[in-house]
Amino acid sequence: MRAPLTEQPPRLEIRNLVRHFDGRRVVDDVSLRIMAGQVTCLLGPSGCGKSTTLRMIAGVEMQDSGEIWVDGKLVCDTIFRVPPERREIGLMFQDFALFPHLSVAENVAFGLRTGTRTEKRARVAELLERVDLIQFIDGYPHQLSGGEQQRVALARALAPRPRIMLMDEPFSGLDNRLRDGIRDETLSLLKDEDTAVLLVTHEPEEAMRMADEIALMRGGKIVQRGAPYNVYTRPADKAAVAFFSDVNVLKAQVNGALAQTPFGRFLAPGVPDGTDVDIVFRPQHVRLDFDRNGQGPLPTPAEGVAARGVVERARFLGHESLVEFRMDYDGSVLKATVPNVFLPQKGRVMWLTVRRDRCFVFPA
Ligand SMILES: Nc1ncnc2c1ncn2[C@@H]1O[C@H](COP(=O)(O)OP(=O)(O)OP(=O)(O)O)[C@@H](O)[C@H]1O
């Protein structure tokens, strides 16, 4: 009988990392596992501790406690420490800089410490082919556009075949038009090289586009981890919903596992009677109906009761329109998005319903 295949250890594992600055816990018990060929995005607002986490993994910052493991081997705890240059980690930051006095080929070859001249030249050519810049192999950085320089920087970071790639907002210096293409190209190159990637960003859209797994960080802690679809559709709390999009919030109190609202009753399974809850939903999950002689649509099981609102403001955003309503029931504002162009006049009466299967009920 064959021995069972042993499970591969994660390419990168961090366990319970903690870092204080000025008595404040900036990174608070962060643990993560990333397998080879997997991209994890550390996503969170400015100042939540993302870069500090990355810097500890790179070895340029020391943790107060916790461990860093690579391919099942301890790389750093509070006593033992492999120096940064021996960690086989590639780095890419927003303000990546190519060496201006070195040619494109020399820039890419910079980190290659082993191998003959021919082997190095072959690796450089392979990567420049891959990022579609082989024609610039003997050119200099100032002859390249920002996007092209970024691709050279990527080739340079990948040249020594790092086991792990750490990227800190690497695309934020690029204009929007370039960015999508370079993100996609970077992603496919990283996948081909089977690198484990930890990418730091504060842009949900970037994380959704790049990540196999998103680790949502707030106040030094990872508050949720999962595939982008799961983090988006099953957010851990109200702030997690709000991080990805505008939100609407209805306040209600639970009675008999139901929360009564102007939009009808919402299920609140397992929530004790008397608990105040927030019912949270995104503007794209509001349905709009025209007023028919003072009446809205009839209630349905999927969308409940319609509530009456008056248009306060409508704006066209490109691929959708955002309409804000002043609601009759308590004077609060609710937001709805509608595909394409829909710009009703201020003061127009409409009826709003909410897609129940897209609402989240959280304790207030
Ligand atoms: N060397 C330092 N000394 C003191 N405080 C620091 C130091 N480095 C970071 N901090 C603080 O730690 C907190 C987390 O910083 P960090 O750079 O990790 O956040 P971030 O999530 O990457 O934010 P951003 O997206 O703005 O870069 C911030 O409040 C920052 O001011």
From TrEMBL:
Q: Per its UniProt record, what InterPro entries does this chain match? A: AAA+_ATPase, ABC_SmlMolc_Importer, ABC_transporter-like_ATP-bd, ABC_transporter-like_CS, ABC_transpr_FbpC, Mo/tungstate-bd_C_term_dom, P-loop_NTPase, Transp-assoc_OB_typ2
Protein name, UniProt field: ABC transporter ATP-binding protein
What does the record list as GO biological process? quaternary ammonium group transport
Q: Which residues form the ABC transporter domain?
A: 12-244
Is the Membrane keyword given for this protein? yes
Q: Which organism is it from?
A: Antarcticimicrobium luteum
Pfam family name, one = ABC_tran
Gene Ontology terms, MF aspect: ABC-type ferric iron transporter activity; ATP binding; ATP hydrolysis activity
Q: Quote a single Gene Ontology cellular component term.
A: ATP-binding cassette (ABC) transporter complex
| Keywords, in A-Z order | ATP-binding, Cell membrane, Ion transport, Iron, Iron transport, Membrane, Nucleotide-binding, Transport
